[in-house]
Each structure stands twice: as structure tokens, then as C-alpha cells.
Amino acid sequence: MFYRYRYENEIYPTQSRVPLHVRMKLDLTGLKISLKTWLGFSLEERWALCHLPVDSEEEKQTFISYLDFLCRRYFSTAVTSVPAITDPPWEQLGEIPDSVLAKSRETAQALRPDEWHALNSCQRYALYKLSISKNEPEQFFAVLSEFREAGSSKT
What percent of the chain has pLDDT over 70? Predict the structure, then answer.
């Protein structure tokens, strides 16, 4: 599965940035790549990384192996390993991460626990990741707005 965020629509045709869903896969598998590395892969290889699942340990190992293969093929070096996130804060349904809550309070309406609980894992990851990001803080608000609009259209 590849979760697409509306605010990233402009990057999907060319994969000119690492999509947020791929960044989640990198966090869960303990890998790190630069934009230069990402762009060094063919468009088809980038799309494959978008669609590879990482739900089971076997799938995580497949993702790691494929990304390592690509890094060795194009850059003659192993993929960079970092500690994997093993207890993701975005998976804690009973508690909104402090960074998400603080960032959402900058809007007219802070994120409520029922809203957090209603989001899927990819949506909660997006809010978490963008709440701790130092780059382009407006992306957090775009994503929060996107999710709220989608939530209100379900009712």
C-alpha cells in the first residue's frame, strides 16, 4: 500500500522528493537516505519503494535489502542505518504526542483525542513527523486541514 497525501500531489508524477509514506517506512526500518540518493534511483525504483509494504518483519527485511541493493548499485555504499522506531508514538491511540498537540494548538482548534483516534496510522504518522520537522512548518497545517476535511465529509 502507498498512502498519498493531497499536499504532496505535485511530487508524485516525478517523485522529486521522498514521499512522507516512504519516510515512515524508513523510520520503521531504521534507514536513512538523502534526497540526492533518492533522486539517484530510477523513477521505477522509487515507485517500487513507495509500494513495498513494511508491516511484517519479513516485509521490513525485503524493504531494507532492496534499498541496500539500490544504494550499493548506484553509490557503491551500503544504505545508512539509524535506530528504528520500535514503539511509534503515532501508534499510541490513547495519547496524542506532545509535539502534535502543541503544534495543533497553534490553529484555532487543537486536535481532539477523538480526532486522533479516528485517523489511520499513516495520517497519525504525518501529523507526528510534520510536528517535529523544522522544515516547512506550514505542511503540518495543510495535512491537519486535509484530514479534518476528509473526516467531516464522512459524517
Answer: 97
User: Within a domain: residue 29?
Assistant: yes
Instruction: Write the pLDDT tens digit of every residue in 88-131.
Output: 999 998 899 999 999 999 877 889 999 999 999 999 999 999 99
Give buried/exposed letters for 119-146 (b at 16+ CB in 10 A, else e): beebbbbbbbbbbeeeeeeebbebbbee
Asked if residue 132 belongs to a domain, the reply is yes
Cα–Cα distances (Å) from 44 to 7, 10, 15, 47, 51, in that order, read: 22, 17, 10, 5, 11
Q: Is the pTM of the predicted complex or chain greater than 0.85? A: yes
Same structural domain, 65 and 119 = no
Domain carrying residue 34:
6-81
* Position 1 in a domain: no
Cα distances (Å, whole numbers) of residue 141 to 25, 58, 119: 22, 35, 15
How many domains, the chain?
A: 2
pLDDT of residue 155: 45
Same domain as 127, residue 67: no
The enclosing H or E element of 31 equals strand 31-32
